[in-house]
């Protein structure tokens, strides 16, 4: 199977995430995009009470596409969600053709060397890198090729949507309908999420 994973905090999942996954299906030889919400993000501050809500919001957001799938792998592994351990488990579960493809933004990609077991991690995945900045220069990443990273850039226009900004808008009582799928907006309202700092 030609598998692409999309790990993330998804706090909350937004339209930008969906656009990225749809782009990968359209432009790469991928059979399935597996969304993997992190149980406890190792490099981010998260509130435990949102763990199940984040999972359910992803579930609602991707239900329209049969080639999108939700994975609870990091919820089953418990503890901090280290990508290296997740990938090892995915190779055990799935019959994967080649390397696992991995959706990532330039901001996270630039910091991969700081991730848990990064030297082993780079051998397990091909990274599909989405630009998250306006002053993008692909030559900046040449050193990562020499370090053994396998990656390609997604030529999708930079879409400046962030989960942090969405949470701030909810806190201020502003509309988020332009940024999140309708089902996610309804879920946030019904469960009164992000009302407190």
> For the report, how would you describe the main beta sheet?
6 strands, parallel
Number of domains: 1
- Which CATH top level class fits? Alpha Beta
Identify the strand order in the major beta sheet.
3-2-1-4-5-6
What is the element string, with H for helices and E for strands? Answer: EHEHEHHEHHEHEHH
- The fold-level CATH name is Rossmann fold
Question: What does this protein look like?
Answer:
- With about 200 residues, the protein is an alpha/beta fold.
- The protein has one domain: 3-Layer(aba) Sandwich (Rossmann fold).
- The protein contains 9 helices and 6 strands, in the order βαβαβααβααβαβαα.
- It has helices at about 15-25, 50-60, 75, 85-95, 105-110, 120, 140-145, 165-170, 180-190, and strands spanning about 5-10, 30-35, 70, 100-105, 125-130, 150-155.
- Strands 3-2-1-4-5-6 form a 6-stranded parallel sheet, with helices on both faces.
- Helix 2 (about 50-60) runs antiparallel to helix 9 (about 180-190).
- The longest helix is centred in the first third of the chain and has 13 residues, at about 15-25.
- The N and C termini lie far apart (about 40 Å).
- The mean pLDDT is about 90.
């Amino acid at each position: 199977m030609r598998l692409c994973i999309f790990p993330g905090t998804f706090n909350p999942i937004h339209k930008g995430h969906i656009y990225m996954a749809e782009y990968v299906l359209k432009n790469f030889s991928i059979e399935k995009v597996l969304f993997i919400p992190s149980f406890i993000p190792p490099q981010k501050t998260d509130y435990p009470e949102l763990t199940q809500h984040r999972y359910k919001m992803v579930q609602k957001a991707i239900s329209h596409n049969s080639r999108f799938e939700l994975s609870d792998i990091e919820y089953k592994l418990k503890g901090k969600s280290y990508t290296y351990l997740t990938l090892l488990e995915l190779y055990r579960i799935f019959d994967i053709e080649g390397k696992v493809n991995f959706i990532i933004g330039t901001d996270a990609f630039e910091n991969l060397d700081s991730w848990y077991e990064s030297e082993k991690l780079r051998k397990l995945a091909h990274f599909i890198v989405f630009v998250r900045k306006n002053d993008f220069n692909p030559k900046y990443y040449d050193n990562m090729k020499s370090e053994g990273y396998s990656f390609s850039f997604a030529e999708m226009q930079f879409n400046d949507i962030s989960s942090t900004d969405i949470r701030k808008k909810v806190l201020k009582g502003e509309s988020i309908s332009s940024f999140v799928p309708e089902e996610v907006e309804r879920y946030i309202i019904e469960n009164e999420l992000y009302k407190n700092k």
